[in-house]
Every structure is written in structure tokens, then in C-alpha cells.
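Per reviewer request, we include the raw input and output of the structure prediction for the construct analysed in the revised manuscript.
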Amino acid sequence: MPDPTVLILGCGIGGVVAANECRRLLPASWRVVVVDREARASFPPSYPWVMTGERRPEAITRPRNRLSRRGIEFVNAEVSQIDLGNRHVRAESREFHYDYLIVALGAETSLDTVLGLAETAHSFYTLEGAERLAATLRYFDGGRVVIAIAGLPFKCPAVPYEAAMLLEHRFHSISLRQKVEIDLYTPETRPLAVTGAANGQAVEGLLAHKGIGFHAEHRLASVDTAKREAVFANGGSAPFDLLIAVPEHRAAAVLRESGLVDETGWVPVDRATLATGHEGVFAVGDATYIRLDDGMLLPKAGVFAEGQARVVARRIAARVSGGNAAAATFDGRGRCFLEVGAGAAAMADGDFFASERRIAMKQPSIVWHWAKVALEKYWLWRQY
């Protein structure tokens, strides 16, 4: 008989945490196998720093084959089929049987869903995209910068606002600010809506203080490539010299084909256990869909992927050992940093599952900036 196996699809934040926790908690007789199409890991919260030139890509990447030192089998391949009935997965030319499956494939991003966007826009939602944008910014000598959010939901609700303020600071630091206009357009009613009205107003205040235009309820409909103009569904438009887009997010095609995705376009899970409707199959991170008590969605953010991964690993280990799996539940607590430029950051923290959600936002400080820097260093060291 084959060795019992926990198979993890995706080696982003949720996937690698799940792999490390499963290996730590499960008997040595169990295989822990993680599959990802990328041979190197990177730390997405640092992509805006790559965009502004504050980080080199090699500083935030690690080879995933390092996981073998911890007894984790890393397979560099793209998942092509998930057979839930027979409990096996195909990844290119290889097949894997699983006893437990953890889906951590994240969200795919695409600029192709909006007419003209892929031909004109930069994006920092991948490491390669952040590198290309950094190269463009080195030669940018002024004009109108438009940041447009192409669709909801998107990963880490703070990131577009963080990027706008980091760019504003960068232009200041190279004496170009007076030659640059920055405007941000979003389909949202306010920034960070899930964290509450007061926090949204605070972010709007930060943007206004820095002279960054904020335009709510502007859904991007198309881009006129000839006129270099973003066109919105409400009839408005915005000319640009540099267009930066938050791309549309969607579940991976292999998940849509597997039957794990429902009409929401994402993988529904029990919000406390991360269990799907299939025995022994869990999902964590950006691929999941979790509705909060007031109807809003749990944000797609690394802090939640990490917490969910730890819960799933503990539940699997308890099942294997005959322990109390119910003792491990995801509580919906999370925090995120919001870089505001000039070496300062704000920080939001709270219980997103609370019936009366109160998310506290700490004022911008160098303390929170250095806390994010420390998190980057610690996380890469701890996971790889």
C-alpha cells in the first residue's frame, strides 16, 4: 500500500505554512507533498517595494526545493486535473494519490478581461510585473498616473492605496512630485470597506493629504489605447501617461473544472474548519469564499491564508492521531500593514468574524513600517 499522503496544491503563503505545519505535526510515516508551477517562492507583501526600487527581487525570493530539508516533497509542476472521486491529482506527467487534500492555489490574475488593459497597463500583483513597472518608473519623467482597480474582490484590500502613497513618496524623493498627478479609481464605495467606515475615511484623508485623487464607484469598463484613456462604466473617463492596474482575480481554471468552485466563482468552505463539501478536502487562502455576518466577504489576504493553513494542519493531525479535531478552528482574526511612504506605515487589526466588526487602525508610525520589514525577514527565514 502507498504511504499515507497529505497533498497540498500551491506553495504560496497558505500552501507553505500548511506543508510546514503538517510535517511538524504528522508522524514520519506520512508523506507531505506540495505541488507548485513556480520553482521559487516570493513574498507578495513586498511587491510594492520592488515596484518603487526599495527591494531587489532576489531579496524576497527563495528556492522551494529547500523544503526537502524539512522532509517535505516539493514537486515543480502545474496541476492539470483534480479527480475528487478517485482522490488523485495529475500534475503534468505525474499522478498523486491523497488521503487529505489541501487546496492553496490562490487566485489567478488577468489583465485580459478588460478591453485594452493588457496592451497599456502595468501591474505589481506579480513579482515580474512589479519588476517591469520599476524599470518603467526609472524613465518616467512626469505626467498623470492612474491606478485602476479592474474588479472585486482582489488580494489585500490595502495594497492599491499603499502603492499610491509609496509612489507619491518616490516622486517626492526624486524631485518629480510637482510634475506628477496621481489618481486612484475603484469600484468600491470607500477604501478598506470591510474594516469599517471610520477606517475608510482615514485612508481617504491620507490620500487627500498627499494630493492623491480618490474616485469611488468607478468600475473600469475598457481602455482606449489610441487616446490613452481609461473608460468607466458610469460614463466617466481618465486620461493617463502611466496606467497601473489591479487586475481581475479569479479561481484557477483547474479548480473551476474540478467541481470545487460554486456559482460565486470561488471555493466555498466552512469558515471555522476550512472543509469543503468533499471528504478529506480543505481549501485555504485566496481561492476560498467566506461570507461574513453582514454579507461582506472575508478579505483575500496572506494573514488569513496563514491562519487557515495552521488550522487545517492541526485538524488533519488530530484526525490521524485520534485527537480532538474540533479544538482547532479559524477565528477570523487578522492584521495588515498599510505603507504610507516616508518610512511610516499604519496597521489595522481585529476580529473579522465578530457580529459587530470593529477593526482598529493604528496611526502611521515608523514602528509599524519596521514591523512589516521584520515580518518579511522572519517569514522568509521561518518558512524556507
